[in-house]
Amino acid sequence: MTIDQATVRKIASLARIAISDAEAAAMEGELNGILGWVEQLGEVDVTGVEPMTAVIPNTLRLRDDVIDADPLTGGNRRDDVLANAPAAMHGFFGVPKVIE
Amino acid sequence: MTDLTNLTVAQIRDGHRAGDFSAVEVAEAFSANVAGAKALNAFIVETPEHALAAAKTADADRAAGTLKPLSGVPIGMKDLFCTDGVQTTAASHMLEGFVPRYESTVSQKLWDAGAGMLGKLNLDQFAMGSSNETSYFGNVISPWKRKDGGNASLAPGGSSGGSSTAIAARLCPAATGTDTGGSIRQPAAFTGISGIKPTYGRCSRWGIVAFASSLDQAGPMARDVRDCAIMLENMAGFDPKDATSLNMAVPNLEAALSSDLKGKTVGIPKEYRLEGIDPDIDAMWDAGIAMLKDAGAAVVEISLPHTKYALPAYYIIAPAEASSNLARYDGVRYGLRALPQGAGLQDMYAATRAEGFGAEVKRRIMIGTYVLSAGFYDAYYTQAQKVRTLIARDFERAFASCDVILAPTAPSAAFGLGEKMADPLSMYLNDVFAVPASLAGLPAMSVPAALNREGLPLGLQIIGKAFDEQGVLNAGLAIEERAGFTARAEKWW
């Protein structure tokens, strides 16, 4: 299966990455090279094989149902959470206007 | 007086404990080497003050009789680990200027054990690369040169290329690395040092910038096997903040080190004998087999029939997970924001990600987005996850007849910077021997074994059963003792 530049632009749009026409052209060749190579996986007989979900068997744990059970990942860290925001305002993340 | 920067972690720890030197002297000696090695570009941020503060504490602790396991040992921290108050970039423009307000579990454990930080080590951008050429902050240069009279700059391997270069050039005695598909082992092999990727889940991923979460695993890099054992003991351990963290006690790896392999069986995977491979690699492998026999091990041939499908499966699974993990970089909560004139929210996302990610990162996000998209998910992603099951099953079956597996770490010695950048596929192929163990979550290490005809180091890889880091380290030690690898790069920087 090969992809064309229109597909490259569609993927870029899904991935929220702006690309120029020149980049789309370059990426068309690169992505086709990589996708053509991974296609050899199709020749593996996977009849009855389950897709891997956990590489090392593990069970999902539940933490204690306590507020701020972990002081690092609990609440009341607003200033820390906002400290690296490009545009924090009034205790919130600032974004461009979203209602047209 | 001996040059303190030639000492290993164990020698620093023991010498400091015995009062042969102060921790401050050690920290200052390494910081001076760091400051004098700008040409290698191994560090993104230097933190001599952090190393010095830890050293002063270590000296005080010695006087008070309260020494910790790594008191007096300064280390390098791969810039993928979040460090409280110290810029953490993953070598990307996206996170340039990002100063975490928290500490990763692994780095916190190391500081709690008394270690100090010399700085944040350069790497491939978001750990995506095998040559350290994708860093936004410039290439790391290997301290090694080919003995051909030329002066070509060589790749230190990747993604932990800052770590490998810094250790090989004596800028730090040990460093952290992370390994998603060979990112500890391949750079270790390229620079003549040791490194171990433990079993998936041994080291907490909390606070490590995520690449491919089902594969990412932290581990130590150092000059020898003992130092790797010491470091790993102080990095590993259960962490409730990581859902895939193993709830198992950390073994006393250093105390149990033994190069006596009597009663052990070493498997030699026949599928790793690649046609047309560099004869120096095959010769090193054969020498390694002889060394393990000499250490008392029996040697058997094993088969890992799905080996050739490991790399293509990896290059679906890792980009798929990366495309999901890296969705968080949107210009809203942290990191770069690009806001063109009059841009709305969607434009801001796209502009931010176009500007903040490098070419290789974009390539992998694009691949991942494609293989996860409607209509292609089963053909690519589900198929790859099934193949991954088969690869893990290959190892399970092989380990019925052996205790550890011996193979080369990489199919070549270090290549020149720029030699593989034009062709992403040829770069990916450099991880052909490293990726299978990653897909199966198994512990694996690289130890330096020989120099090739160009005078460059080559590494042997030992792959173990899940949770058997001890078996891996012990086989590594048996090779280390017999290979007698003492070569080091001549200082030119």
Automatic annotation (TrEMBL), chain A:
Q: Which GO terms describe its molecular function?
A: asparaginyl-tRNA synthase (glutamine-hydrolyzing) activity; ATP binding; glutaminyl-tRNA synthase (glutamine-hydrolyzing) activity; transferase activity
GO term, biological process aspect, one: translation
Q: Which residues form a coiled coil?
A: none
Using the UniProt record, name the top-level EC class of this enzyme in a single word.
ligase
What is catalysed by this protein? L-glutamyl-tRNA(Gln) + L-glutamine + ATP + H2O = L-glutaminyl-tRNA(Gln) + L-glutamate + ADP + phosphate + H(+); L-aspartyl-tRNA(Asn) + L-glutamine + ATP + H2O = L-asparaginyl-tRNA(Asn) + L-glutamate + ADP + phosphate + 2 H(+)
Q: Which InterPro entries match?
A: Asp/Glu-ADT_sf_sub_c, GatC
Annotated keywords: ATP-binding, Ligase, Nucleotide-binding, Protein biosynthesis, Transferase
Asked if the record carries the keyword Nucleotide-binding, the reply is yes
Q: Does the keyword rRNA-binding apply?
A: no
Q: Which domain of life is it from?
A: Bacteria
Q: What is its EC number?
A: 6.3.5.-
What this protein is reported to do is described as: Allows the formation of correctly charged Asn-tRNA(Asn) or Gln-tRNA(Gln) through the transamidation of misacylated Asp-tRNA(Asn) or Glu-tRNA(Gln) in organisms which lack either or both of asparaginyl-tRNA or glutaminyl-tRNA synthetases. The reaction takes place in the presence of glutamine and ATP through an activated phospho-Asp-tRNA(Asn) or phospho-Glu-tRNA(Gln).
Tell me which family the UniProt entry assigns to this protein: Belongs to the GatC family.
Complex and partners: Heterotrimer of A, B and C subunits.
The entry's protein name is Aspartyl/glutamyl-tRNA(Asn/Gln) amidotransferase subunit C
Top-level taxonomy: Bacteria, Pseudomonadati, Pseudomonadota, Alphaproteobacteria, Sphingomonadales
